[in-house]
Amino acid sequence: MKPRICVIGSSNWDMSMQLPSLPSAKETVSGGTCSFCLGGKGANQAVAAARAGAEVIFISCVGSDQTGREVLRELERNNISPEGIITSELSETGKAMIFVDRLGENCIGVADGANADLSPDKLRKYDEQISQADVVLLQMEIPIETVRAAASRSFKNGQKVILNPAPATNFDKNLLAHVSIFTPNQVEMEQISESRLDDELSLKKAALALLDQGPEAVIVTLGEAGVYLVSAHQQIRLPAFSVVVKDTTAAGDVFNGALAFAIAEDMQIDDAVEFAMAAAAISVQSAGAIPSVPAHKEIEKLLAAQIKRH
User: Fold this and answer.
1) How far is CA 97 from CA 9, 85, 174, 249, in A?
2) What would the pLDDT profile of 106-130 be if each residue is shown by its tens digit?
3) What are the structural domains, with CATH classification, of the chain?
4) Is the pTM of this model over 0.85?
5) What confidence tens digit (pLDDT) does each residue in 209-230 have?
6) Rounded-to-integer distance, Cα 106 and Cα 23, Å
7) Strand pairing report for 160-163 and 135-138
8) So which residues are the catalytic ones?
């Protein structure tokens, strides 16, 4: 039986532009190519969990516009049932503009749209489906009160709750009391801890401080520097896989979706992180968000090659 994961989060329609360099203020950069596809942290993570091998229920909110219908079609193409998708008559579907340079680095702007309409009241309709999940995966592109309600209810039900605090603006640390695994990247970690984390000692200190507030594990993703994992039993840095980077868009989302699958499969935390790192390493070698999400067999192949190499 497949592990069951409930992802509650955002759905966007992405415009992704590959450019020679990222534009700075008042600068125009030409010579790019453009594509449109399904995106949003919630949708990305839902697809990543499904391709890793999970049965996924995805709860999100889209508009009644054409892009909302495109989102629904793309979710179904990626084996995500539309049963958890709420259509809002108040707002347009969320949209994101993503600029990617020749080194794979990106900057992103998001218009929340219907994502802001995913209220705790709308979530109650799905209480039964949420309660049946082995793992509940959350991010921060929906209203904070909805994240808080979902985390609290799921944690009290004895479910594993993974919170990816992206974006981390005005993060509420009280959420950590209802979180099993917390997965910030380095920038988000600095925002939450309100300190500069430029060495391993400062990173460890900040992670342990968050661990004291409730989670079983704090997992800080560091891009090409790998991952820093802190739990009650270990504090270790896991090195990144050595790959050629084309586009880092959604690498963190792929990591979180694959991690949710691995945790639902009862992998040990360090093995789960390795599995998620392998998924993210595959994703950065291709352009785009959803198009770069790997299947389970691809992740296992990279892990096997890594073991053989060592």
Assistant:
1) 18, 22, 31, 11
2) 788 888 999 999 999 999 999 999 9
3) 4-22+34-309 (3.40.1190.20)
4) yes
5) 999 999 999 999 999 999 999 9
6) 10
7) parallel
8) 253
